[in-house]
Amino acid sequence: MSVASSHGLFLGRGFPWEQRHTQMIETYLSQEGALPVARDVPGGHPALHAVGMEEEENVYLPFSEMVAQSLHDGATRSGKTELLRILARGAILGPGSTLLLDPQGSRKLIASAALAAYRAGKRFMLIT
Fold first, then answer.
1. What is the pLDDT of residue 127?
2. Where are the beta strands (DSSP E) in the chain?
3. Is 60 exceeded by the pLDDT of residue 64?
4. Alpha-carbon gap, residue 10 to 90, rounded angstroms
5. Distance of alpha carbon 40 from alpha carbon 51, whole angstroms
6. Tens digits of per-residue pLDDT, 10-55?
7. How far apart are CA 79 and CA 94, in angstroms?
8. Angle at alpha carbon of residue 103, lines to 102 and 108, rounded to 5°
9. Is 87 helix (H, G, I), strand (E, B) or coil?
């Protein structure tokens, strides 16, 4: 679930990945059954969170970075529409107006955008 704040659109929790994190994963993988696991961490592989759990902080996408078009590419069922839904909801809840283009016309995306606009007290218009 996306959260809009004064910092921007909340994307989740993370940390800057460094070479030492890669080395930790490689070391754990070389020891059978020793891969660390972070419990109750949504998104990503639990081992990736485990090597930097103490360093994690909230990650925000500033609204100033959402003023232009973007392209999200991926294989079928890789989560492109879900990412678009999260970004659209955050943009709608943020300041200003939002224009959302979805060439596939996903009903789930349209419903999500309409609900976000309703909750934000903003006007929603569907052009077909």
1. 82
2. 3-5, 8-14, 57-61
3. yes
4. 8
5. 15
6. 888 888 889 998 888 888 777 766 666 666 666 666 777 778 888 8
7. 23
8. 50
9. helix
Pull the structure tokens for residue 66: 């959402």
> By the 8 A CB rule, do 53 and 40 touch?
no
pLDDT digits (tens, 9 = 90+) for 93-108: 888 888 888 777 888 8
Residue bearing tokens 């909340």: 10
Which amino acid, one-letter code, is at 122?
K
Q: Which residue is associated with the tokens 């107006």?
A: 97
pTM > 0.70:
no
The larger pLDDT score, comparing residue 91 to residue 4, is at 91
φ and ψ at 44, to 5 degrees?
75, 170
- Residues in CB range of 125: below 8 A, 6 or more apart: none
**Rounded distance between C-alpha atoms, residue 128 and residue 126, angstroms:** 6
